[in-house]
Specification:
alpha+beta, Heat Shock Protein 90, Rhopdopsin 7-helix transmembrane proteins, 5-stranded mixed sheet, elongated, single chain, 22 helices, 5-stranded antiparallel sheet
């Protein structure tokens, strides 16, 4: 009959033996690593002794002492882990030494007490049996307390791997606590709980192994356990172990087929076992399955071959060096190529016509085609699968694409002699470009190009794609702003021309009535001369650099206002000028300042009936000149002033207005450092108040308009 206890504790011994051997590899000299290895090997000796005692008997007292010794080694390991969390000072070390000394003395006392009873001592018969049970219970409680303190006192950022260690070791002590609590309560050890104990202790070994696989940091100074095992050995061991488990399961299935298959049982068993073996052979020889298993083991049980922190810092440093719009495309190629020591590359980007065209190259001189079609199989493959294509392995690839073999690559890609990798640039699941990297000269001596290289290149490609997309958006925005500036300039030019046409139209409309009036003729000639002069200046400004045009000069406001008011002639409504002071100068472009003030006056005149009046005032304080244009016209309500007055292309004049005069006036005055206030009531007129800073640089040239009235 199968002895469950023997199998249970043999399993524990095998599991901890594997863990102990694993811990003995790698660098030596780390105290916590050595203590964990000692605790694992102590568990092996204890579990093997229990299994032997269950099979042959005679080693009960030795098994009890070995269990106490095993608990002490695990307790010592947990104390060493907990000690690393606390500050390194003499007082802390002394306290931990006292705790471990007390636990050791307690364990030795229990061992001596057990030996005393075995040798025939009877002085302590009243606690016979309970002493060992209570001692084991106390050791379990102490282990749980230390596990809890270890997890609680470890910084949150270091708990990623430590939590698995605490769950594994804590689970082992928790089950022992339950076992011995039950035994102390009912004065006997439950055979069921005892037999299951071996399997349960074996179950915690993989949990501790996960902590090791996650590169467990044993202390804040990064004193880590380093485990180095051949990936090939782990792969073949895993494959053989899986095959063994599969064969055991199939054997059990064959047994039940034979037992319940009746007269056909043996036939069904033979068929079942042969089919199972055939499936196993197919699985073992499946290259895709073996590749998937190898990637899974490399990802989850071994350290990475890249220092991702260094790689990412170097990648970002390369991308962000220099000016944002200067050779960013070349830097993106270089940043990706540095990951795999590629000496050069070429960048393709999606253009406005939808095609992918080469836009930049870095250390590559091979000729490239004009474009790659956006609906070609290469582009669709990169966008749908987001795979890094290794040209050296492409021909023998077994991956599928829409039910066919790996996609045929375009001829131009084969024509690039140095081409090695094709890296997609994905942004929001859309392919915006791809990079063709040159073959690395270090390829024969560096480790195999694998899934880790692909994952890092894909991630770097996504980051580079965001930078390149930002560059394209910035360039598009710059072009849009140029067109916007041109359109705004065109609108202002048309607006100025409209005002000139309005003045000339007014002269023409009054010519028939006042042509015999010498004062009218003089005013008309002056208006025509002024309009011609303004149009000539406007054409000149359109031809020259605008930085030259906007250069400020000292403008005499008294003279400027006199010219602007005189330009509106003697026609009604009457316009008068009131200046409080003289020699008041501001720093501005004279023509534009004249135009915006003229616009305000013209609007006031258009809003005022013929029997009304428009008054232009000017005064100055220590910091600014204040120009007021007051009319007795129809006025405006508060909502119109707040929401519509300065909004571009909003006009109350219908087709006769452009709606940009007030907006241009406000923007120009603000550019000078001033502001505009508007006070108005419907039916009571309006006051436009322009605040313009006084000129504070006496060295600026003074601009005068000669020949003016």
């Amino acid at each position: 009959m199968i002895n469950v206890e023997v199998i249970s504790y043999s399993t524990t011994a095998a599991a901890f033996l594997g863990l102990g051997l694993l811990l003995l590899t790698g660098r030596q000299g780390q105290i916590r690593k050595r203590l964990l290895a000692v605790a694992s090997l102590a568990s092996v000796v204890w579990a093997a002794t229990v299994a032997y005692q269950a099979a042959y008997g005679g080693l009960l007292i030795i098994a009890q002492m070995l269990e106490l010794l095993r608990d002490l080694t695990w307790f010592a390991f947990l104390l060493a882990m907990l000690r690393a969390v606390y500050p390194d000072d003499t007082g802390t070390t002394r306290r931990f030494a006292v705790v471990f000394g007390t636990a050791s003395a307690f364990t030795v006392a229990l061992m001596l007490l057990a030996l005393y009873r075995i040798t025939g001592g009877s002085a302590l018969r009243f606690i016979a049996g309970n002493d060992v049970l209570a001692g084991q219970l106390l050791m379990s409680v102490a282990g749980l307390v230390v596990v809890e303190q270890l997890y609680r006192n470890t910084p949150h950022e270091q708990r990623r791997a430590l939590k698995y260690l605490c769950v594994g070791v804590g689970g082992m002590f928790a089950y022992d606590f339950y076992l011995y609590s039950d035994a102390l309560l009912f004065q006997r050890v439950s055979a069921t709980l005892w037999d299951a104990r071996g399997f349960i202790h074996a179950m915690v070994v993989p949990v501790i192994g996960i902590a090791l696989a996650r590169n467990l940091q044993w202390s804040p100074n990064r004193d880590a356990i380093d485990v180095f095992v051949s990936r090939r050995i782990v792969f073949h061991t895993t494959a053989l172990l899986g095959a063994g488990v599969y064969l055991l399961a199939m054997g059990a299935g064959g047994y039940y087929v034979r037992e319940y298959g009746g007269s056909w049982g043996l036939v069904f068993q033979a068929i079942f076992l042969f089919g199972a073996g055939l499936v196993l052979a197919i699985l073992l020889f499946s290259g895709q399955l073996r590749a998937s298993l190898r990637v899974f083991i490399s990802k989850h049980f071994f350290g990475y071959k890249y220092d991702y922190r260094d790689e990412w810092l170097r990648f970002i440093r390369t991308l962000s060096s220099g000016e944002p719009a200067t050779q960013l495309r070349e830097r993106a190629i270089k940043a990706i190529a540095q990951i795999v020591e590629s000496p050069g590359g070429i960048l393709w980007m999606r253009r406005d016509n939808g095609r992918f065209e080469p836009v930049a190259r870095w250390n590559m001189s091979d000729p490239v085609p004009a474009y790659e079609s956006a609906d070609g199989i290469l582009v669709r493959f990169l966008e749908l699968r987001e795979w890094v294509i290794n040209l050296d392995e492409h021909e023998k690839s077994v991956q599928r694409f829409h039910g066919a073999e790996a996609p045929a690559l375009p001829d131009w890609l084969h024509a690039i002699s140095a081409a090695w990798l094709v890296v997609p640039l994905i942004l929001h699941e859309n392919l915006i470009g791809f990079v063709v990297l040159a073959r690395s000269p270090l390829l024969p001596v560096r480790h195999e190009f694998n899934w880790e290289d692909c994952d890092l290149l894909k991630t770097a490609g996504r980051q580079a794609a965001s930078h390149l997309a930002q560059l394209e958006a910035s360039r598009a925005l710059a072009e849009t702003r140029q067109f916007e500036a041109f359109n705004r300039l065109s609108a202002f030019v048309v607006h100025d021309i409209k005002n000139l046409i309005a003045q000339l139209s007014l002269v023409v409309s009054n010519a028939a009535k006042h042509k015999h009036n010498p004062q009218f003729m003089e005013d008309a000639i002056h208006t025509v001369e002024s309009s011609i002069e303004k149009m000539n200046r406007l054409l000149a400004n359109l031809r020259k650099d605008h930085t030259e045009e906007d250069r400020p000069v000292r403008v005499d406001l008294v003279q400027l206002l006199s010219e602007v008011v005189s330009a509106h002639g003697i026609h009604r409504p009457e316009t008068t000028l009131e200046c409080a002071g003289h020699g008041i100068a501001v720093s501005a472009n004279r023509d534009r300042l004249s135009a915006v003030i003229g616009h305000v006056i013209q609007n006031a005149r258009e809003a005022t009936p013929g029997d009304g009046h428009v008054t232009v005032r000017m005064r100055a304080d220590r910091r600014e000149a204040v120009i007021e244009v007051e009319d007795t016209g129809c006025g405006m309500d508060e909502a119109f002033i707040r929401e519509r007055l300065f909004r571009p292309f909003e006009s109350t004049k219908g087709s006769a207005g452009m709606g940009i005069g007030a907006y241009e006036t406000r923007e120009f005055i603000r550019a000078l450092g001033g502001n505009i206030d508007v006070f108005s009531r419907p039916g009571h007129g309006t006051i436009f108040r322009l605040h313009v800073p006084l000129a504070d640089n006496p060295s600026l040239p003074i601009a005068y308009r000669t020949g003016s009235n």
